Amino acid sequence: MSEHRQNTTHATVWTYIKVALVLTGVTILEVGSTYIRQLTPIIVPLLIAMSAAKFALVLLFFMHLRYDSRVLTLLFCGPLLLASGIGIALMTLTGAFLVFGN
Amino acid sequence: MAVGALTHLAIVIAGTLVTVVGAFRLALEHHRTPAHEHQVGSLDLDHRKVAIWVFLGSECFFFGTLIATYLAYKGKSVVGPEPHQILDIPLTTISTFDLLMSSLLMVLALAAVQRDDRRQARLWLFGTAFFGLIFLGFQAYEFTHFVREGLTLQRNLFGSTFFVLTGLHGAHVTIGVVWLLCLWLLDLRGNLRVTDAIKVEVAGLYWHFVDIVWIAIFTLVYLIP
After folding, report:
1. In the predicted model, is pLDDT for residue A13 greater than 60?
2. With a threshold of 0.90, does the pTM exceed it?
3. A5 touches chain B (CB under 8 A)
4. Taking the CB of the first residue and of the last residue of chain B, which one, N or C, has fewer CB atoms within 10 A?
5. Does the interface ipTM go beyond 0.90?
6. CB pair distance less than 8 Å for A71 and B43
7. Hey, how many other C-beta atoms are within 10 angstroms of the C-beta on B15?
8. pLDDT for B201-222, tens place per residue?
């Protein structure tokens, strides 16, 4: 897989615009859901899911991980998973999840 | 105690300088020898691209720790103001939208450079930097407003963790804006050709990373009650 092939298999401009529209839509949904009282019991997982979807869209399309070498995915996702694990461990140790549970 | 604090500060400043200078040299190097234009290694990938992804991986630890610290101390401030009393979600939604749109302009700039469309490349590069500046303006307004409301770095745990997290993100945006303006100037001087697309791609990867960090901050700091 040469550098040239990687560049030519990137998404089209129209794909980028569609991704930007989806990102805008999800952001509106995120903010809107914080004002709906009925969603209160599930608001934290719902917001995290929507945020993760936006995160993944930017990574896959704008940062081209969908089209680039898997080595680059490993170079980024490895540290990302480790950092997330350290964060979750830190929050567990300091009882942060108890605050969310209340 | 003061000497220890100064040593820590000096190490942080030295580390920041090395990182910033290294990033700028990586981004703006302009090889006059055509043989050096493509720096493809054994992984069949450009070295600069591998380097920026490794750097972004290390940045995951940096921001991951800051976000985890903010969440670990959430709701543990002894005195106010509390997040729900002071955070302005509608205003931050606009600045979030601004940063998301800057990412769109960044990929449009890269696509323009790759097809050697100089006029559009200049337009989108400047547009991305301009949107970054708007984001920084929103952040400056927010910080000023918070200080007027009594929330400072030393006021409570919320103030300390909030200003450190969002302030360091703002510092990253500032570096990104300077980087993009440097590329825009290179383009104005005719030094950004289709063979230099990797420089825009590397800057773009950094910019999108700053965007995804904000996606996480917006949800975890502003939206989660």
Report:
1. yes
2. no
3. no
4. N
5. no
6. yes
7. 10
8. 999 999 999 999 999 999 999 9
Check if B71 contacts A (Cβ < 8 Å).
Answer: yes
Interface subset of B 81-100, CB within 8 angstroms of A: 89-90, 93, 96-97, 100
Q: Which chain B residues in 136-155 lie under 8 Å from chain A, judged by CB atoms?
A: none
CATH superfamily of B54-223: Cytochrome c oxidase, subunit III, four-helix bundle (1.20.120.80)
Residue of B nearest to A52 (CA): B216
Min Cα distance B146 → chain A (Å) is 21
Nearest to B80, CA basis, from B16, B149, B177, B144:
B149
3-state SS of chain B is: CHHHHHHHHHHHHHHHHHHHHHHHHHHHCCCCCHHHCCCECCCCCEHHHHHHHHHHHHHHHHHHHHHHHHHHCCCCCCCCCCHHHHCCHHHHHHHHHHHHHHHHHHHHHHHHHHCCCHHHHHHHHHHHHHHHHHHHHHHHHHHHHHHHCCCCCCCCHHHHHHHHHHHHHHHHHHHHHHHHHHHHHHHHCCCCCHHHHHHHHHHHHHHHHHHHHHHHHHHHHHHCC
